[in-house]
Amino acid sequence: MALHRAVGCDTTGCLALYLSTPTAGPDLVLFAAERAGWGVTAGGLVMRCPSCRTHGLAVTERGNCPVCTGSTHDGPHGETCHHCGHTVPHPAVDEIGDEVVAGPAR
Ligand SMILES: [Zn+2]
Ligand SMILES: [Zn+2]
């Protein structure tokens, strides 16, 4: 069984998690987390999620944010995280109704 590699925020009461792919090594996870906005101290001993790091606000509600697992809402540009502000653009769906993400011809 593959394990998801995850790093959690060390702020008390903060629920933020950064999830990585099961194939990524521990070093790669920290690197990816840092790239996503997390604060990682030397050796990855203390982690700070982007929200705690930049706003000092703990993530108190879990949601779909790929960066901090915080709760998200529908913003003008996509699904926006309440906590770290990360935005996932809406997939190219709707509008017409059956338009699907571009891919190889069916
Ligand atoms: Zn945090
Ligand atoms: Zn977030």
CA radius of gyration is 16 Å
Number of domains: 1
Percent of residues in helices comes to: 10-25%
Number of helices: 2
Q: What pattern of helices and strands is seen along the backbone?
A: EEHEEHEEE
Which shape, going by the Cα principal axes? globular
In the predicted model, the low-confidence regions spanning at least 5 consecutive residues are none
Biggest β-sheet strands, sense, barrel: 3 strands, antiparallel
Number of strands: 7
DSSP strand content: 15-25%
What structural category characterises the helix and strand content?
A: alpha+beta
What is the average of the pLDDT values? 84
Strand order of the largest sheet: 5-6-7
- Please give the alpha-carbon distance between the first and last residues: 33 Å
The small-molecule ligands in this entry are: zinc ion
Task: Kindly describe this structure.
By secondary structure, the protein is an alpha+beta fold. The chain has one domain. 15% of the residues lie in helices and 21% in strands. The chain is built from 2 helices and 7 strands. The protein has a 3-stranded antiparallel β-sheet, with no helix packed on it. A hairpin with a 6-residue loop joins strand 3 and strand 4. The longest helix has 10 residues, at 26-35. The radius of gyration is 16 Å and the shape is globular. The mean pLDDT is 84. The structure holds zinc ion (ZN) (2 copies). The site of one zinc ion has 9 residues, from helix 2.
Task: Sum up the structure in keywords.
alpha+beta; 106 residues; 2 helices; two-stranded antiparallel sheet; globular
